[in-house]
Amino acid sequence: MNSLDPSQMTPYGIIIPLSLACIFVAFLIACTILTLIVCTKRLHTVTHLLICNGSIALIFYCFVQSINYIHLAFMSWETNDSLCRWRGFFGYMTVVATIYSYLIQAISRFFISILGIRHRWVKSFKTHFILISIHWSLAVLLPLPALLTEDIYHRPNALCWVPKDYTLHVAYTVIAYYLIPTIIIFILYIVIFCRVKRRNLSIFVRRRKARSNRDLDLLYNIMILFSIYILGALPIILFVLTKNDVFYSIGIISVSLALAVEKGVTLIIDRDIRNTIRFYLQKTVVQVGPSIRSIS
């Protein structure tokens, strides 16, 4: 979210440790989700395939942003503009990958809930692998202006983002990275909600009410998780509107915190993942119990 020029007075000595702590927590939770999905056969569904893809995007985000923060804190002697542009490119790439992972989940839910009734192929793994391919292609293509222009350059005590003086480039990042996917996600949410509710009035769909309710539950989950991320980005939006660097400082932490919270909430609201965790915990307790009794 950090697409603007930070103030030279930004307290990175406080911000960087807090952001890295949030990133570390998000990284651990994302790795946990990824491991659960890969190792649990009943989680091998198209829905969890996209959750897995989102976790990979978040792990990539954690890795790149950690490098950027560590470079800013400990490698101030490195002043090459080209390397700064590459760091900015990968930073924006991880932001796009994270946000657009929510978008392809919403598109998948649209395919399954609306189009899947007549076109069963849209529910297939092949279709979802194509969605993932498009997702990562956009993650590479959309941030290319960071490399193709010289708007990003080394600035002492500043992250390698587009300075706020480059209004056109800043507007592009806000619109392409955040505004467009957000609008599409909310449109898909409204369309799916209205169509599913309308279908529930028919006799045919009453027999499928449980499936319709599950579709809505999954969509609610996507919206909850995406809303957490958007709330985390709110300070940066306020910075864009007010030019107050305090919001920028808060925003760096809040985005990382939102990602950690979002992944934590995923463990709670995803019923299949929650039940899988409960199963493994109960299995561990059963195995540990006899061992303790035998020792005593």
Automatic annotation (TrEMBL):
Q: Which UniProt keywords apply?
A: Cell membrane, G-protein coupled receptor, Membrane, Receptor, Transducer, Transmembrane, Transmembrane helix
Query: What one GO molecular function would you report for this record?
Result: G protein-coupled receptor activity
- Which InterPro entries is this protein grouped with? GPCR_Rhodpsn, GPCR_Rhodpsn_7TM
Write down what this protein is called: G-protein coupled receptors family 1 profile domain-containing protein
Residue spans making up a coiled coil are none
Checking PROSITE patterns in the record gives: G_PROTEIN_RECEP_F1_2
Question: Where does the record place it?
Answer: Cell membrane
One Pfam family cited in the UniProt record for this chain: 7tm_1
Gene Ontology cellular-component terms for this entry are: plasma membrane
Asked if the keyword Transmembrane belongs to this entry, the reply reads: yes
> What transmembrane ranges does the database entry give?
12-38, 50-70, 90-117, 129-148, 175-197, 218-241, 247-269
Q: Which residues form the G-protein coupled receptors family 1 profile domain?
A: 29-241
Which species is the source of this protein? Adineta ricciae
Gene3D superfamilies, alphabetized? Rhodopsin 7-helix transmembrane proteins (1.20.1070.10)
Membrane association type = Multi-pass membrane protein
What CDD domains does the annotation carry?
7tm_classA_rhodopsin-like
